[in-house]
Amino acid sequence: MLARSVLFVCFGAVAAQDLINLIVPPDAKAALAASAGKLDSLALNEEELQWLHVLAEGWATPLKGFMTEEEYLQSTHFEHIIVDGQYVPMPVPIVKTCTTEEKDKLTGKESIALTHNGKIYAVMKSPSFYEHFKEERAGRTFGITDKGHPYIEIIHNGGDWLVGGEIQVLEKPVYNDGMDQWRLSPAELQAEFKKLGADAVFAFQLRNPVHNGHALLMQDTAAKLKEQGYKKPVLWLSPLGGWTKDDDVPLKTRMDQHHAIIKNGIFGDTPVVLGIFPSPMIYGGPREVQWHAKSRMNAGATHYIVGRDPAGMKHPDGTKDLYHMWHGQTMLKNNPGLAKMKLLPFHFASYDTKAGKMAFFDPKRKEDFQSISGSKMRKMAANGESPPAGFMDPEGWKILVAYYKSLAGKKEL
Amino acid sequence: MLARSVLFVCFGAVAAQDLINLIVPPDAKAALAASAGKLDSLALNEEELQWLHVLAEGWATPLKGFMTEEEYLQSTHFEHIIVDGQYVPMPVPIVKTCTTEEKDKLTGKESIALTHNGKIYAVMKSPSFYEHFKEERAGRTFGITDKGHPYIEIIHNGGDWLVGGEIQVLEKPVYNDGMDQWRLSPAELQAEFKKLGADAVFAFQLRNPVHNGHALLMQDTAAKLKEQGYKKPVLWLSPLGGWTKDDDVPLKTRMDQHHAIIKNGIFGDTPVVLGIFPSPMIYGGPREVQWHAKSRMNAGATHYIVGRDPAGMKHPDGTKDLYHMWHGQTMLKNNPGLAKMKLLPFHFASYDTKAGKMAFFDPKRKEDFQSISGSKMRKMAANGESPPAGFMDPEGWKILVAYYKSLAGKKEL
Questions:
Q1: CB–CB contact B336 A87 (8 Å)
Q2: Interface mutation vs chain A, best among B68, B83, B140, most A CBs within 10 Å
Q3: CA-CA distances (angstroms) from residue B77 to A81, A121, A312, B82?
Q4: Strands (E), B65-178
Q5: Span A205-237, pLDDT tens digits
Q6: What are phi and psi of B112, to 5 degrees?
Q7: Can you name the CATH fold of B20-169?
């Protein structure tokens, strides 16, 4: 039982005291703000502000700022960075772009201020500039270079240079969208799990509304963890909160739906912690699932639920899925740096027409099961139709209907 | 002096007894050949036969055959494979392609025979088939997916499936081109270095004729190693012997040139071992330089010479170099798995018109130096012109002139 007793002391791989926290203590804020106000500044776009948030709270521990060229090369080539000769998972480049004009202006500065909408968020020390090889970055990160991929489009819209360096952050970014209270930092999450007396924390990365098939899986997972001897498994619902592509369901709608279903008890008696993950999506499949797992491990997850084709999408040429559906899971299994977290495979649940509820697929009576795809669900919601009874918590469903109604006529579903 | 005394026992990172040798002992050959003759077979193309040679002799230790899907994913994602939880450098996928028809015919077979031109070279046990995602393989390996890249063209000409599994090789591949005696295995090279009493082996990967600027660098390197206390530094000239693109100088011409310059003593009193590296080129820049270093480390190199833009080429779109000139060196420095070998940076030598010989570039009198590029050299050789005195050993030069004369009219230079 050694492993279990260790879990009581330290959730996941990074104990709270070892998490990188780049936010200055409250008593140091005024001094930093005063000095930052005198510095030359560089603007962060919205997506870069989200990465700053990720860095600030230690989701990307041990990174201390936007990647330098060495860190960037290690990340793009190895999907790890090298720290004291050790390989630490870092599958996604976390970088700041700038233009040639900005580089020329800021080269040689001791420090620069990082701003968004005119507000100073952070100070970057000893900024170092390096060329932004956009095609190569896309190819290494995604295995394609097609600008029809939404994040590759972001890469190409960025400047021709990258700038890296350690940062000090003035305060936790807030978004004033009514959801800031759900943006718990890794340290806050670890404290919450401890307060709940959790001896296992199973994380569920979300970018979609939760239906009763998901709920069934979560209840089943909690039961299995108890069978393994865990006394207090806690479910961490972890919706991705940063940039997503246009046709994904927006965070606000998803959060409203999550609140409704938690309130209505669809997860049974398992304690649920709802905490937004502030990262942007990159739609990077096997690379990105490692990022999603690593960041949750840093925040205290001991178990990680992984399904088919995580963080995948259609190839921009429309012919096929961009990634093989099991490569994501394979890469998670093969990454020694993530081995402190146990993988829980996602069992496929679909609508059992005989039982009138979501159930684990039974190949012996496959004619009884009906698959309700995301696009079918979107069409039903847009038409105000009800799904089969038992597909989704009715209050949660109404929230989706309202969202898709609001879209009607604005874009194709 | 601990590290040095270790070098006497074991050159490089892999001692001879730990090198993977997939060639069966002579007394087991007849039995394997007899059983192999009864198996279904799969043909290797010329490039795949070269990879088989690489695998057979342990250049890619610890690989025991063409990569399985897990090894392939680890290599393409991590540039390493994972062995007992440890990261082992393996930056280049070493794979065998096949068509859908071949896969359908061979799936489920316990063993298959690998052939080339009708001759059985090896037996693959428990072959496992997996999809060949050609675009993704290119993107992750090269950072581009452009089919104008000569190795990406090879990838696209391959079958839609890959097949991996451990192999037993009947005998060392021979090519009957008059150069087989120079194709020393890693174990033979280690023995040769030991016989010479080497306490340092500095490897020079070659894909071009050697001019006196290279010779100057080699002499300088030997002198520096002696200054560091090494008594018997040995130079290992290691020309790449496998597939190269059409406009590279062919192996036979290069070897003739190398033999001439060694005979004429241009490396001074440093002992020289000439041993062909049987690998194909992939023109993979920062990935490939790691492969070139790792394979030489396995064969006994203790020091590795690395220049600008190793294994690089022009972007197929013709606009620029495909890779940043220092990224290859940076990746070598950043790979902890290669740290047992010391890196020796390549100092740039060019023609010193005042001294009438190749010399290290002196920025204080840059007007005295004349750069003789590869394309300038090719044009001079094709026209039967003599280069400036002291640029290259005259006998070596004549060999190049003969080669380029033979090409005249066949293709553009």
A1: yes
A2: B140
A3: 13, 34, 16, 11
A4: 65-66, 80-83, 86-89, 96-98, 111-116, 119-125, 128-131, 161-169
A5: 999 999 999 999 999 999 999 999 999 999 999
A6: -135, 155
A7: Sulfate adenylyltransferase (3.10.400)
> Cβ contacts (< 8 Å) between B330 and chain A: which residues?
69-70, 73
Q: How many CB atoms neighbour CB B316 within 10 A? A: 15
The ranges assigned to domains in chain A are 6-14+178-412, 20-169
Check CB contact under 8 Å for A79 and B82.
Answer: no
Please judge whether A70 and B334 are an interchain contact, meaning their C-beta atoms are less than 8 angstroms apart: yes
Residues of A in contact with B144 (CB under 8 A): 135-136, 139, 145
What tens digit of pLDDT does each residue of A110-128 get?
999 999 999 999 999 999 9
Residues A185/A295, Cβ–Cβ less than 8 Å? no
**Pairwise CA distance, residues B332 & B285, whole Å:** 11
Q: How many CB pairs under 8 A join A and B?
A: 84
| pLDDT tens-digit series, residues B289-328 | 999 999 999 999 999 999 889 999 999 999 899 999 999 9
Across the interface, do B145 and A136 touch by the CB < 8 Å criterion? Answer: no
Fold of the B6-14+178-412 domain: Rossmann fold (3.40.50)
Residue carrying structure tokens 């309700």: A372
Residue that the structure tokens 């087991």 belong to: B28
Q: How far is A317 from chain B (nearest CA, A)?
A: 12
Has the ipTM of the complex gone over 0.90? yes
A143–B140: do the CB atoms touch at under 8 Å?
Answer: yes
Q: How does pLDDT run across B59-83, given as a tens digit for each residue? A: 999 999 999 999 999 999 999 999 9
Q: Rg for chain B (alpha carbons), in Å?
A: 22
Report H helices in B316-412. Answer: 327-334, 374-382, 394-407
Measured between alpha carbons, how far is B232 from B250 in angstroms, rounded to an integer?
Answer: 32
* Partner-chain contact A142 B138, CB within 8 Å: no
A139 and B135 within 8 Å at the Cβ level: the answer is: no
- CA dihedral defined by B274, B277, B281, B283, rounded to 10 degrees? -60
Q: How far is A368 from chain B (nearest CA, A)?
A: 32
Name chain B contacts of A135, Cβ cutoff 8 Å.
143-144
